[in-house]
Amino acid sequence: MFFRVIPKSVIPDLVRGLAEQYEVVGPVAKGETFVYAPLADAADLRLDYDTTALPAKRWFFPESEALMRFRVSDNAVVSESLDTAPRVLFGLHPCDVNSLLLMDNVFLGETPDPYYKARRDNTLVVGVSCTPGEYCFCDAWGTDETHWGFDIFLSDIGDDYYASIRSVMGADLVDRYVPCRAITDEDTAAFQRRTAEFKAAFTNGVDTSQLPVLLDAKFDSEIWDKLGEKCLGCGACSMVCPTCYCFDVHDELDADQLGGTRVRTWDSCQFKQFAAVAHGQNFRDTRAARVKYRYYHKQWGYLSKFERVLCVGCGRCTRACKAEINPPRVVRALQTGVVD
Amino acid sequence: MAPRLVVLSLASDFGCQVQLTNMTAELLDVLGLVELSYWQLATSGHMPPDYDVAIVEGAVTTTEHVELLGRVRETAAVVIAIGACANTGGIPGIVGREDLEGRYGAVYGPGPAVATGRRAPLPLDAFIKVDYHVPGCPIDTGEFLRVLSRVLLGLSDRVPDMTMCASCKTNETVCFFDEGRLCLGLVTRAGCGARCTSLGRACTGCRGIAPDANLASAREIAVRAGVPAAAMDDALRIYNALTEVHA
Ligand code: SF4
Ligand code: SF4
Ligand code: SF4
Questions:
Q1: Same domain, yes or no: B147 and B171
Q2: Is residue B36 situated within a structural domain?
Q3: Which ligand is closest to the CA of A288, given by its number?
Q4: In chain A, where does DSSP find H-type helix?
Q5: Is the ipTM of this complex over 0.90?
Q6: pTM for this structure?
Q7: pLDDT digits (tens, 9 = 90+) for B48-82
């Protein structure tokens, strides 16, 4: 990794430069919220955003995507759709950069998912530092920092960004499009001060001590029944979660029934139909079982396989869940034995 | 041989049949797959004695409807219920289960001669086995086409049973409850893509209450947002007056 200091004032020039070769996607305002959307104008980029409604995963793994077109008469695949458009995701916070690494473990493992991989291979990631919001708790998992998974990471040090450059491509783009200079010791000191302020600003202290032990030891605890009484089974938590990757695949025939499209959509373990199998059996029939499963998988199942929990503390589910079920509260319930 | 199709209506405003005519891009393809024997809104002539697939719109509100529906079930191999009226009782269901005569009287005057053989409205499921369901007021034509595809392929009914909020979040909307406003998406069956909330209108529950809906928790959520629980129950009467709503 090497570093540059980039004046904040030249960010629009950088975006405009990138736009010559790439579709640039970044946080923009949408009503009372922010969303990652293609930037029509560099001035629309809102690097002061708190969080986005949906995470960046949809630019690699969209909520609904056509995987292929087929013909019914002979079951032939007529065309496959791989999205290889060159794209830059500009302005991801550390939690969202980290979430992509967790997704990669799943989609780029032994059998890479070609649709995800095509987008991932053709997308550059530019991260930006942030200020902890009301629901943020990435500090609990150490996902408040990121040292890989991006091409450029911009840390706010006042009038300038302290830019960490992680890839050749990132270096090339910075040199090509914006005036920048090498870092000095003062810049690094400013970066450290700013990091300390950032770390001190978190308010959702989550005590994660011995969490895997608690999950196993309290598998039959009544806290799950209490949470199940509140849960709506709505799946909003999974949709907004940057690390939820479950999907469903189905075929949609054209109106003439001669051809069709194979479609992949987001799914959620919180839906009752999710665990319905042949013969009408459902191995997670109750909301309590489904909420427990979500937490069990995120904080223990994935951890035991990939040595990270499957949560980056972005707080999107805290905001989305009207039943007020969220990781800080569930972890508190595991620690104390009661749902507060 | 192409299945012989009939489209008929009980108590409704024909809105879902109009919706079928609105499938301008697909209608000719659909008509190429079936033999259209009767379509109450769009063909002249009478219901034939024999057919294979019956698409039924509307709620059952008279004894004549009950008899007709019985005959339809005996005749058709497949019955498809389209629209809120047919699936939950919908708008005709607002009249409720009690004091039917008083309510008719309030609208039409004492002892009205309208709707002979009238009875408390009910959805089709209350009388016959319905093979496929396309809920909504009006139906979504995309969903109708997907269901028709399943009918033609002999696949089972697969009406979504989750609630609305996941689709709503996928549309990147701010929740009505965050603004202290009521939305029935918390308990309403998904499948329309949460179209209303993405257009800035709260969900009115036209697709019916989802089978696994958590009404008790939804009421608590409403109260926390400053909406009285009774307001939620009132709003549910628009399309779900006939659905048992448990505390
Ligand atoms: S579980 Fe919640 S806080 Fe954790 S990554 Fe998913 S949405 Fe963010
Ligand atoms: S935990 Fe919350 S957001 Fe998730 S399914 Fe339950 S009610 Fe919906
Ligand atoms: S309650 Fe309504 S507005 Fe809120 S998430 Fe659900 S469908 Fe959307």
A1: no
A2: yes
A3: 2
A4: 11-19, 94-107, 114-121, 168-177, 185-200, 211-217, 223-230, 236-240, 287-296, 302-306, 316-320, 327-336
A5: yes
A6: 0.95
A7: 999 999 999 999 999 999 999 999 999 999 999 99
Domain match, B32 and B149 both: yes
- Find chain A residues with C-beta within 8 A of B186's C-beta: 232, 234, 322
Helix residue spans in A23-124 (DSSP H): 94-107, 114-121
Q: Are residues B23 and B71 in the same domain?
A: yes
Place B246 in a pLDDT band, splitting at 50, 70 and 90: very low
Q: Across the strands, what pairs with A2?
A: A165
Beta pairing, strands B4-9 & B53-57: parallel
Give the C-alpha distances (Å, rounded to integers) separating B241 from B84, B89, B94, B145, B184. Answer: 11, 8, 6, 28, 14
The verdict on B183 and B85 lying in the same domain is no
Q: Does B169 sit within 8 Å of A239, measured CB to CB?
A: yes
**Considering Cα of B23, then B28, then B32, then B34, what sign does the dihedral take?**
positive
Looking at every residue in chain A, the average pLDDT score rounds to 96
Residue B191, domain member (yes or no): yes
Whether residues B28 and B133 share a domain: the answer is: yes
Structurally, how many domains does chain B consist of? 2
Residues B114 and B176 in one domain: no
Centre of ligand 3 from the C-alpha of residue A272, in Å = 18
B35 with B92, same domain: the answer is yes
Please give all residues whose beta carbon lies within 6 A of any atom in ligand 2, as ranges: A 231-237, 270, 291, 320-321, 323, 325
Domain end, chosen from B153, B187, B219, is at B153
Vertex A16: Cα angle to A14 and A20 (nearest 5): 110
Give CA–CA dist B246/B114, Å, rounded. 34
The verdict on whether omega for the bond into residue B138 sits within 30 degrees of 0, i.e. cis, is: yes
Domain residue ranges of chain A, discontinuous segments joined by +? 2-200, 211-336
| Same domain assignment for residues B142 and B224 | no
Q: With respect to residue B211, please indicate whether it lies within any of the assigned structural domains.
A: yes
The answer for residues whose C-beta is within 8 angstroms of residue A142's C-beta and 6 or more apart is none
Residue A195, token pair as written in the block: 């990091």
DSSP string spanning A117-166?
Answer: HHHHHTEEEEEE-----TT--GGGTTTT--SSS-SEEEEE-SSEEEEEE-
A259: closest chain B residue by CA: B149
Instruction: Look at residue B247 and tell me if it is in a domain.
Output: no
Q: Please state, as a whole number, how many other Cβ atoms lie within 10 Å of the Cβ of residue B238.
A: 17
Query: What percentage of chain B reaches a pLDDT higher than 90?
Result: 89
Do the beta carbons of residue A88 and residue A126 sit within 8 Å? yes
Question: What distances in angstroms separate CA B32 from CA B1, B2, B220, B238, one per listed residue?
Answer: 12, 9, 51, 37
From B121, B153, B185, the end of a domain falls on B153
| The token pair that represents A249 in the structure block | 């695949």
Q: Decide: helix, strand or coil at residue A207.
A: coil
